[in-house]
Amino acid sequence: MTNLNETISENFKRLRGERSLSLDDVAKLTGVSKSMLGQIERGEVNPTITTVWKIANGLKISFTALVSRPESDVEVVCKDDLQPFKEGGTVRTSPVFPFEEKRGFEMYLFEVEPGGIRSAEAHLPKSQEFVTVFSGVLLISIDGTSYKLKKGDSIRFNADVPHTYWNAGDKLVQASMVISYAP
Q: How confident is the model at residue 1 (pLDDT cuts 50, 70, 90)?
């Protein structure tokens, strides 16, 4: 399996080149510093999920356009092979099936330790999230309205607004998250 930093680096270089953008141009579009963008492009840093989202939103691409792997006819993904984005040691987001243009969606394994919280910026216009909880109780606030999901519950929502996930319980939350992008 390719190292996630290498994948992000290669994809970022390619996408920036296809658009004929300088690092200064991308910094202006994304709000990420030119020096950080250079380190990401060279594969020298492990960017946070927030930084990758800023780059994706600024370039108007899906998140996994930066972390995608080539697709074959059949792909088995073992949890032990996933490379999660970690936030504060309490939230892990692991790309399972990265975005592919022909699919129009991406899928993640999402884990939140007790007390963990993750705030997400609005995604691309007309994008939707589909979340199913497999263990624990996940609280989701979507544009100011809160929802409580327990094991077996699912939610679909327009993800082009700010949203927050948190685990106010005492058990690990494990969930599946699918983000769908409008054509």
A: very low
Q: Which of 61-65, 79-83, 140-144 has the highest mean pLDDT?
A: 140-144
* Nearest Cα to Cα of residue 3 among 41, 37, 46: 46
Instruction: For residue 145, give both structure tokens.
Output: 């309205």
Helix, strand or coil, per DSSP, at residue 86: strand
Using alpha carbons, list the distances in angstroms from residue 9 to 71, 112, 130, 162. 18, 27, 28, 27
The three-state secondary structure class of 43 is: coil
Q: How many residues does the chain have?
A: 183
Q: Are 167 and 114 in contact (CB under 8 A)?
A: yes
**Cβ(181)–Cβ(57) below 8 Å:** no
Four-residue CA torsion sign, 149, 150, 155, 161? positive
From CA 65, how far away is CA 68, in angstroms rounded? 6
